[in-house]
């Protein structure tokens, strides 16, 4: 295939789709990036949600590759340690590493918008907001997108990537293909989550130690908090969806108040209306996605959460998706634009890594919610770090 003749479609302009678009355009490909939602820089699509994420080395490496590491670092907060809060409000601090090693708290919306703005500057990229992939012919690569104003619109290309997240339409359409051997699973975890907020002090400062990831480990459930640059913390409560102490069982203001008083003594006065938030918010599910293959007909590939959605307990979902992009981009250069070999090598290299990190993330719930509150475990970790 002539490199200049190749048009690439990416479904999904989340962090992974946006970064992938930039990397491919920088290698000379024409990229059409389709996003089902409106442009978040112009419309409030997050409905008050302020998800923040931990960015670690594998994520930074990919961002540095497109030269946006420094810009993103300006809006990120280094977290040098985890701070565990016990039921009495006593704190234990455990560094993440040595020599100021840190993971970084970034806003998901912020990093996504920065990557979309970067993509917009690339002459070879066209971004189409409010275009939801609805149909795809895996042979001709004719794709149909539903739009608000123009109904279904058709777009043709030579290659297509599904970067459309946990419930990927590309993946679901691939699963319906005849004569393909596709193994797939989507597993719901017992836990769901809601987000809560700790607002800044009146002077804009943080109400708890700023450069830390805070954890209230309570074995079967936990609360965590990551700092934001405006002085607030975004907190996430992970709790079983059903069972004895769960989103379903805590069904009155009295029960929820008692739950917070018993378990999150020191957080309770800091949180903004946690009981109201708990009662009014629908808890979001957590899912694991496995699929093989990641590549169909040598011209459709899955990337990011579409290929390997995982639980957030290892803080690696987006980092891992960014690593997919970096590795893919390196393979494009190595295989000189031969997409059959690029996609085969991408799948060979990334699928085992995706599986491994899904498993590690799942296991890390026990470390975060249980072991991190265990004094023997903390002592062992501290000794290991010396
Ligand atoms: P998404 O972010 O899901 O983006 C997919 C995009 O595709 C969306 O914009 C969506 O609107 C669009 N789309 C969907 N369907 C279509 C369609 N049919 N047509 C067109 N567009 C479509 N990761 C970390 O690395 N560190 C963390 O600390 C971390 N913490 C997390 C905490 C929580 C509570 C959760 C839920 C996740 C966390 N993650 C974390 C995971 C991280 O959010 C995801 O891995 C990351 O967002 C995946 O990016 P993506 O671009 O692959 O998918």
From TrEMBL:
Catalytic reaction equation(s): L-kynurenine + NADPH + O2 + H(+) = 3-hydroxy-L-kynurenine + NADP(+) + H2O
Source domain of life: Bacteria
This protein's record includes keyword Cell cycle: no
EC number: 1.14.13.9
Keywords per UniProt: FAD, Flavoprotein, Monooxygenase, NADP, Oxidoreductase, Pyridine nucleotide biosynthesis
Reported cofactor(s): FAD
This protein's record includes keyword Flavoprotein: yes
Pathway in which this enzyme or protein is active: Cofactor biosynthesis; NAD(+) biosynthesis; quinolinate from L-kynurenine: step 1/3
Residue intervals of the FAD-binding domain: 8-359
EC top class named in words: oxidoreductase
Family named by the database record: Belongs to the aromatic-ring hydroxylase family. KMO subfamily.
Role played: Catalyzes the hydroxylation of L-kynurenine (L-Kyn) to form 3-hydroxy-L-kynurenine (L-3OHKyn). Required for synthesis of quinolinic acid.
UniProt protein name: Kynurenine 3-monooxygenase
Gene that encodes it: kmo
Residues of the full protein shown: 1 to 386 of 456
């Amino acid at each position: 295939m002539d490199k200049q003749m190749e048009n690439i479609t990416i479904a999904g302009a989340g962090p992974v789709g946006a970064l992938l678009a930039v990397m491919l355009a920088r290698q000379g490909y024409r990229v059409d990036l389709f996003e089902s939602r409106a442009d978040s820089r112009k419309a409030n699509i997050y409905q008050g949600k302020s998800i923040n994420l931990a960015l670690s080395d594998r994520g930074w490496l990919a961002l540095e590759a497109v030269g946006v590491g420094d810009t993103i670092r300006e809006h990120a907060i280094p977290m040098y340690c985890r701070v565990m809060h016990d039921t009495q409000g006593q704190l234990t601090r455990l560094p993440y590493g040595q020599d100021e090693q840190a993971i970084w708290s970034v806003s998901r919306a912020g990093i996504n918008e920065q990557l979309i703005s970067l993509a917009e500057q690339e002459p070879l990229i066209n971004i189409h907001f409010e275009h939801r992939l609805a149909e795809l012919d895996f042979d001709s690569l004719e794709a149909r997108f539903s739009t608000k104003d123009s109904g279904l619109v058709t777009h043709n290309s030579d290659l297509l990537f599904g970067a459309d997240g946990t419930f990927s339409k590309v993946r679901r359409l691939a699963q319906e293909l005849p004569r393909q051997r596709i193994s797939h699973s989507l597993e719901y975890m017992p836990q769901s989550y809601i987000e809560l907020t700790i607002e800044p002090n009146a002077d804009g400062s943080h109400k708890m130690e700023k450069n830390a990831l805070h954890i209230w480990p309570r074995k079967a459930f936990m609360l965590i908090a990551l700092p934001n640059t405006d002085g607030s913390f975004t907190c996430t409560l992970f709790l079983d969806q059903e069972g004895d102490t769960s989103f379903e069982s805590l069904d009155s203001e009295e029960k929820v108040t008692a739950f917070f008083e018993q378990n999150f003594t020191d957080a309770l006065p800091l949180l903004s209306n946690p009981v109201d938030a708990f009662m009014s918010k629908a808890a979001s599910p957590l899912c694991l996605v496995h699929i093989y293959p990641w590549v169909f007909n040598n011209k459709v590939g899955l990337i990011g959460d579409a290929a390997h959605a995982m639980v957030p307990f290892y803080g690696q979902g987006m980092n891992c998706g960014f690593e997919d992009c970096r590795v893919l981009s390196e393979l494009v250069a190595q295989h000189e634009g031969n997409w059959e070999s690029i996609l085969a090598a991408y799948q060979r290299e990334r699928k085992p890594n995706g599986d491994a990190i899904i498993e590690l993330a799942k296991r890390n719930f026990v470390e975060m919610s249980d072991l991190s509150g265990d004094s023997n475990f903390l002592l062992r970790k501290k000794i290991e770090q010396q």
